[in-house]
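Q: Structure tokens for this one, please.
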Amino acid sequence: MTRTAAATREDVVRAAARRFVAGERIDVRAVVAETGVARATVHRWFGTREGLIGEAIVHASEPALARARRVAAGRGALGLLDAFDGAVRTMAADEGLRRFLEHEREAALRILTSSAGVVQPAWVARTEALILAEADADRYRPALDPATLAYAIIRLTEAFLYNDAAAGLRGDSERLRDVLAALLGVTPAPPAPGAESGH
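A: Here is the predicted structure, written as tokens:
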């Protein structure tokens, strides 16, 4: 059923996120038609198509990061390592992300990695929240301040996950896990069972 103009900003984000997860191009006209929100309103809320895509990616990534939070709970540095590793492996296997990088290379890298965008700051904030939760519970003492550590983790993830030359996803998860372990100050253990599938 077509939505009326009473659809919310979150409705628009969800509609765009569904297209992203399905590996479809996020077309603002299609999102407008589905939600019933005026194009001018979408422009006011998100600024540009890239702004909407960024919000959709953040929304679509929440399940993987929610799993990361569950993995990290109560396990200190090793739990954080498993959490970040699981999230990275989920991203590396994500078909929607893969297709986005293949079909819209320059825009994808800009949307995913710009500190002035939506995606990177959101992922840094979520990563910092995980670190702070473990630090506040006295299960982990970061060698760096949590904000800097979170930023370093996300930037490293970008470097290992995105192949700038081919604009594809590369599954360099094992080496990234070792580097993250060094940052977190732990000896890397094997990935948790089911980590490769993100479950």
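A few notes: The CA atoms of residues 26 and 53 lie 7 Å apart. The two ends are 33 Å apart (CA to CA).
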